[in-house]
Amino acid sequence: MAENKLSNEEVLEGLAKIVEEVAGVSADEVTAEKSFVDDLDIDSLSMVEIAVQAEDQFGVKIPDDELANLKTVGDAVNYVSSNAA
Amino acid sequence: MTLRQNTGPAATAILGLGSTQPDRVVTNDELSEIMDTNDKWIRDRVGIVERRFAADEQTVADMAVVAGSKALADAGMSPTDVDTVIVANCTSKAPIPNAAAQVADRIGVKAAAAFDLNAACAGFCYSLATASDMIRSGSSKGVLVIGSEKLTDVVDPVDRSTAIIFADAAGAAVVGPSDDAKIGPVTWGSAGDQVDMIYMREGKYIFQEGQSVFRWATTKIAPVAMKALELAGIEPSDVDVLVPHQANLRIVEAIAKRLRAKGAREDMIVADDIVHSGNTSSASIPMALDHMRSAGTVHSGQVALIVGFGAGLSYAGQVVILP
């Protein structure tokens, strides 16, 4: 149902809150072009915690092999937007 | 034709605890000299500051004898007060003979029912449940349960994904009859379809899919712990002490966080023995309990929730009242 789909802005906002909660990075810092590892200093285990919370919140599956491809916040937003139920 | 079957005492308890670690302390800085890692990286990822490595000649059985003897002494019991010895381990050098029979003999438990139990890092909780049920069914009058591991024998010494984590130790508990039930029902199981997450690569060295194991442990183990509480008939707020297998401090903290979200108290004591002991597989839970009690962090009569999880994948948890 297209009208129920989350907008990229909504996903970004939700994801930023999750990143803040898991990794202690201010939500304002979490913008589309930022790299999780290089810019936000988030390690592989925190990425798993972020993925688990994103799965719960957005109703999407993010397997570990897909997680490795999500380099930037924008990658994650696009993945969630296009795979959310 | 109907055969007679045994019945035993209705209730069991942990009557004593003991543990031992090798003398050699290995710091993060020492490991940084032989592989590409550093103190901060190790502390951030796994929460370990130092661990103990056994000497070349020190065996799983050697450490088990020390920990088991200490647990008997702590219980104020002699070796003849028990008739069964279970050595939980997954790192004995050879499967034949098992460790338990030698350990029983060296401790002085005559003609013991003796067997090794391999449920990897869940081994202590599996063995504790087995011991308690053996007594309640009348098969045993008292059981010495020991988790003993020499993981340095199965770890690539220069693989920074495993060599920084695993270590050597033994922990033990004496299980016997009790007036009151002090070992709750076990909840246990396995996920053999995910066996590829932790295995022996080329039969030689432990390999684990770090992210997948982390995801499994941080999402699937808190529900196991909750089930153990339900089976024991108590609430999350009744738990004084939480002792998850000391796999990784971040896993321990994630499990504690999930339990607190379900009603566990903020002042619940959470074992962090991994900080100075590393991940010692089946030894980690009894050793953490023993260390915490010796340090005065926990005391007799407190309600402890213990849960083991590891290769297999295997998991088991129960509630115990501390001796």
CATH topology name of chain A: Non-ribosomal Peptide Synthetase Peptidyl Carrier Protein, Chain A
Note the total helix count of chain B: 9
The helix content of chain A, as a percent range, equals: 40-55%
Poorly predicted ranges of chain A (pLDDT <50, ≥5 residues)? Answer: none
Give the CATH H-level superfamily of the largest domain in chain B: Thiolase/Chalcone synthase
Helix content estimate of chain B: 25-40%
**Total beta strands of chain B:** 14
The fraction of residues in strands of chain B falls at 15-25%
Tell me the strand percentage band of chain A: under 5%
- Helix tally of chain A? 4
- Radius of gyration of chain A using CA atoms only: 12 Å
- Main interface: chain pair and counts: A-B, 10 and 12 residues
Taking the sheet with the most strands of chain B, its summary is:
5 strands, mixed
User: Low-confidence parts of chain B, pLDDT < 50 over ≥5 residues?
Assistant: none
Oligomer: heterodimer
- What is the CATH topology descriptor of the largest domain in chain B? Peroxisomal Thiolase, Chain A, domain 1
Top CATH class of chain A: Mainly Alpha
Looking at the overall shape, the CATH architecture of chain A is: Orthogonal Bundle
Number of domains of chain B: 2
